[in-house]
């Protein structure tokens, strides 16, 4: 009888990443990938990043199932390989490597990652690695279909983020809605008490039909972190979208410099603005923005100083002026005097101005005023009720136009 023995063969292990980069370059890349590394991962590997080296480049990827960050480094790859490195440990090791050095000297330290070892001309230490096959599959970034100027994008995004919600029980309101048209990108946010919308011209668009629009909800907190990382970048920002029939956008990718950030859009949509935006104004007044901010700060501080107040009253004062004062209640209204502000009537009559008063949240008013940059601010008001108080939203714009100059901010008035 003949016995046949089958030999078991083991597939060779896939090569690990091998690359070199200056300390500053690698540290900056880790700061970027931190956007999608869980601070307290449920399993250790989700606190890792994927390093992929090729003969031409090395790219670091981080992924938390909602956001993917990929950073391609100007490094010196030595071979093709893939590793999953512990993000937190790697940051601490890099900090240790720089210990005792001046900042400029630390920035220049050549750092080499070779398989499971990190080395510099002075030291070598082992790295924690995880099985590459256990890391979640990375989504493929969406190729850019439109491009916007980074300065305009950041400026407008920062304005809109002011109005995003912070209530975790209403997650849709914690998002910014991106709507991509053939000629512009509109960003819109609201927390139910205020609303902001900004347009950015699209310098290059390949979204197809001239009137086609693509919308997606992106978490505001992630966009805020991305915006902070983009401040030193001056160049185009590519916008890519993956769409599926009957579903809409399933992935949005922002590409800038050597970075790609991909978001899985949140399901749903923000409340429609059409019913809140006025088609015409009963009264439009233009104020000096710096003087209005000064008056609003005083009103906010005085409102808070007494009865934990949170509101201020914009009221007519002497002819051609309005008063911005803290609001302590209707019975004390005649006892309070606020800062007097000269106004220019952009629309309406002196009689309409004299008969108008509106109460708003002091904090929200200050934040709205801070999003504008011009010398003046125009406030559009609707007709007051029988009590002389405006009950419909206030619209703030850069100029007399109801839709502003690519940006507007809406504030809901307060009622007793």
Automatic annotation (TrEMBL):
Lineage: Bacteria, Bacillati, Actinomycetota, Actinomycetes, Kitasatosporales
SMART domains, sorted: POL3Bc (SM00480)
Main localisation: cytoplasm
InterPro entries from the UniProt entry: DNA_clamp_sf (IPR046938), DNA_polIII_beta (IPR001001), DNA_polIII_beta_cen (IPR022637)
Superkingdom of origin: Bacteria
One of the protein's GO biological processes: DNA strand elongation involved in DNA replication
Domain DNA polymerase III beta sliding clamp central: residue ranges: 152-272
Name of the protein in its database record: Putative DNA polymerase III subunit beta
Cellular component terms (Gene Ontology): cytoplasm; DNA polymerase III complex
GO molecular function: 3'-5' exonuclease activity; DNA binding; DNA-directed DNA polymerase activity
Pfam families: DNA_pol3_beta_2
């Amino acid at each position: 009888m003949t016995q046949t023995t089958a030999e078991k063969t083991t597939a060779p292990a896939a090569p690990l990443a091998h690359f070199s980069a200056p300390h500053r370059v690698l540290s900056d890349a880790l700061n970027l990938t931190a956007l999608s590394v869980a601070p307290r991962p449920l399993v250790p590997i989700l606190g890792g990043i994927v390093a992929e080296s090729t003969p031409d480049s090395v790219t670091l990827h981080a992924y938390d199932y909602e956001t993917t960050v990929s950073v391609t480094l100007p490094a010196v790859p030595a071979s093709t390989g893939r590793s999953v490195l512990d993000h937190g440990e790697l940051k601490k090791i890099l900090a240790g490597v720089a210990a005792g050095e001046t900042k400029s000297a630390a920035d220049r330290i050549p750092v080499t990652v070779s398989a499971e070892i990190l080395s510099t001309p002075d030291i070598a230490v082992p790295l924690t690695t995880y099985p590459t096959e256990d890391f979640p599959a990375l989504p493929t970034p969406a190729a850019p279909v439109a491009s916007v100027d980074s300065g305009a994008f950041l400026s407008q995004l920062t304005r809109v983020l002011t109005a995003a919600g912070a209530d975790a029980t209403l997650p849709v309101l914690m998002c910014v809605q991106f709507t991509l048209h053939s000629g512009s990108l509109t960003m819109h946010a609201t927390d139910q008490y205020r609303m902001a919308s900004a347009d950015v011209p699209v310098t290059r668009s390949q979204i197809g039909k001239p009137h086609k629009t693509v919308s997606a909800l992106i978490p505001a907190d992630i966009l805020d972190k991305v915006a902070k990382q983009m401040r030193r970048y001056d160049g185009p920002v590519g916008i890519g979208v993956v769409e599926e029939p009957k579903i809409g956008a399933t992935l949005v990718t922002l590409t800038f410099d050597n970075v790609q950030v991909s978001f899985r859009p949140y399901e749903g949509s923000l409340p429609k603005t059409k019913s809140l935006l006025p088609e015409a104004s009963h009264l439009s007044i233009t104020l000096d923005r710096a003087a209005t901010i000064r008056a609003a700060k005083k009103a906010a501080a005085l409102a808070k100083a007494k009865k934990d107040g949170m509101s201020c009253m914009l009221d007519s004062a002497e002819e051609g002026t309005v008063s911005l004062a803290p609001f302590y209640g209707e019975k004390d209204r005649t006892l309070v005097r606020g800062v007097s502000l000269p106004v220019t009537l952009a629309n309406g009559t002196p009689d309409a101005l004299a008969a108008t008063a509106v109460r708003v949240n002091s904090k929200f008013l200050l934040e709205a005023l801070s999003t504008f940059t011009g010398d003046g601010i125009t406030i559009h008001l609707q007709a007051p009720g029988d009590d002389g108080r405006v009950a419909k939203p206030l619209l703030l714009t850069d100029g007399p136009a109801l839709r502003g100059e690519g940006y507007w901010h809406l504030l809901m008035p307060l009622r007793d």
